[in-house]
Amino acid sequence: MSELATLARPYAEAVFKRAKETGSSAKWSEALAFISSLVNDEIIKAATDNPKIKKNDLTNLLLDICNDQVDQEAKNFLQVLVQNKRLKVARHIVVIFEQFRAQDEGYTDVDVASAYALSKDETKNLTATLENTLKKKVRLKVQVERSLIGGIVVRAGDTVIDGSIKGQLQHMQKALQ
Description:
Elements: H1 2-22, H2 25-39, H3 42-49, H4 55-66, H5 72-83, H6 90-105, E1 107-114, H7 120-134, E2 137-144, E3 151-156, E4 159-164, H8 165-176
Parallel strand pairs: 1-2
Antiparallel strand pairs: 1-3, 3-4
């Protein structure tokens, strides 16, 4: 996994630099997400892994699918990925690009797993608390995960805050062993 991230980093840096030059970070975020979802589709994966399919044919197929979904710069980028046999790192390019964008724009993406759906007030309070703790603007992505039994698990980059009942039970189990 870290090898793929290493391969993806120069591409993400180049795209981010171009996005900064043109003031098009949001556009590139959407384009990279589309490209990543495209190349991670099972049928497309099968085509990219098939040695009988020529690079030009694969490029034409992908560009036809992209048609009006991405602009010419993103299509050119997709062609570079095909020519350099780097389609497999598209997902990592997205992750690294979004990290650069978040750092540049002064926010952090935070994934929250909750045992139950959070109300607007709870989301607002959690956002305020996390912004105070992390000293950055926070973009929450909340998903319900019933297996937590109760509480929440917060992931912000390398920081994980486990306030779930499931986590507490696992911690107690380890302590008792």
